[in-house]
What we know:
By secondary structure, the chain is mainly α. It contains five helices and no strands. Helix 3 packs antiparallel against helix 4 and helix 3 (68-97) packs across helix 5. The longest helix is centred in the middle third of the chain and has 30 residues, at 68-97. The protein is elongated. The chain starts with 43 loop residues before the first helix and ends with a helix.
Amino acid sequence: MSEIPPPTIPPATPPPPGGGSYTPPPPPTGGGYNPPPGGAGSDRTIMLVLSYLGLLALIPLLTKKEDREVQWHAKNGLAIFVAYIVVYILITVLMRFLPSGVGCGLSMLNCVLWLAYIALIVVCIVKATSGQRLKVPVISDFADKM
């Protein structure tokens, strides 16, 4: 067998023209990605999202007492969740005691209610993470009083 010479590996950084040592340019400053306020470990966004995830709203409500914005969203999210549960229970109880035709219609209403709740939660999360508030007419007023 014939001997094949080993492949040559080019240098990692090319030498500068005229010889000498090569120093790479410094990384660019300014522009580009800016970390969120509060440092890289900021959990404010996580707390805003948790504020609208049902009983998980208790986490920001109990842990972020110094942040008024997170507190407002946690109370609002908890009030929306409680209102959804109350209406869901009411519809479910009515389905049991009404004739089957009406109960079937209420069952469909229950599905529509669930879809509306999910859509409302998604809109609230998007607004909260962008620094805005979504006031649901009766529920947000009730949450403000808590």
